[in-house]
Amino acid sequence: MRQSISTHVVGRLLLLAALVTGLLFSAGSLPAHAQPARQASYYTVQPGDTWAGIAASFGVPVRLIWQANGVTNPAALAAGQELFIPAHRSGSQPVIAYDITSAIVTWRAALESGNLISSLLLVNGVSSPASVVGQRITMPARQDQIRAIAEQSAATVTPAPTSAPTQPPTPAPPPTVTQFPTAALDRELVGVQGFFMFNDGVLRAHSLDMVAYDLGAGWIKQQVVWKDFEYEKDRYSKEMWHVLDEVVNLAKDRGLKVLLSIHTAPDWARATQEEEGPPVDFAEYSEFVKDVVLRYKGKVHAVEIWNEPNLRREWNGAPLNGAEYVRLLAGANEIIKRTYPEGNVIVVSAGLAPTGVTSDIAVDDRLYLRQMYEAGLAQHADAIGIHPYSWGNPPWTRCCGDWGGAPTHNDHPSFFFLDTIEDYREIQAEFGDLGRPLWATEFGWGTMDKLGRETPADAPFFNYVNENLQAQYILEAYRMAQEWDFMGPMFLWNFNIAAIPGFDNSHSGYSILRANNDPRPAYEALRAALRTDM
What is the number of other CB atoms lying within 10 angstroms of the CB of residue 426? Predict the structure, then answer.
């Protein structure tokens, strides 16, 4: 999780992803699934006009037009009707329409037309991307405008971020969302990270039954804390191996793929016992990784090498930079490839904490990723780990000041799911590595809604998400990511922490289960999107 934030140079605006992937369309070259642009006068309603089309033409929310004209019955729109358009731009602009389907999703329509998804929703008077599936939506054709702005903005710098208030203001209750996406998700790209290493084997089996047979996810992620296994050099905990054996074997029996995240050196291997960190001799780590992959040959599908090494609390005792981490990664990758010459274990670089700051306790993850690439990252990993958290902001919003975001933790790109993914792709493009996939080894939204627990002082953004919004954001993030061919599996943080007795901290807010394994709306919505037999 992040520490704090700093000024960030914005090298791209709204359509960076489109510029990278070639989705910009010039005038007269709209995609086949978009309706042709048209010009119209919207002071006098023309035959065939719609409220959404009028709103899009003037860039004004449809509800504002209704209010300005005293409209109480939106169905009563007639040709020849005179409308007052408040706060409109000078003249109208071209309008295009999209029929939103499982193939032509809201994300793609916004990208191709040059609009923010949140602006698109506002203009059309709808609350979420999920609610427009199967409908036609209308929007301005803004590609040329966005391109012109982008060309002039290379040197634009975001305002210095402000710290979150010590005592956040009491927010208005978030809206209730009851509509969820109905298009099925690919279970091979959906994973959950949970606490499966219980002392109770029955509970462990029940939890993995829920993941495989009820929820329908395709992957689990399990952390392997090295210091808990090798408590002294070459002396191992039989109990820890037994529990991990059960997790891996139960997962295999249920058809679940397994990602193991191996991190945290034991004290005997480290230079200091403060916080957590790597060993003095990186070869010690590689040997432990070898022990793990040999033990679970044919049962583990991917290994993540360490966790958030751009934070001092995870990397104390060694230089805090990307090049030093790549030394660790290179040794582990080499030993995995030697152990599995057939190449059927995917090596994932450590997911970085989206910090947005460089200080004595953290390195900005974007800077750290560049350091990793400069040190040869592309030679030592099959996939790039990423932790695209979004605090209280919806997954479809971008920094900064986007409509629909949270009132705090919103003034820097590292606070946004979409910005983090786009920034990582930009860095991959800089180093000619766009073919390597991103794996979201952690992501999620937290809320204490209906958990009966206080919002943690260090997580005021929980106040701006309720259980229904958590469900909506998680579903939309998965749907967006499955539109991108560069995204590998995404692992939700987390499956079941709130269901573990006595585990009472901010991590429980991210859980999609309550006490007694009671499903939260996020669990139910994800299950509905994964199950094809319902």
Answer: 17
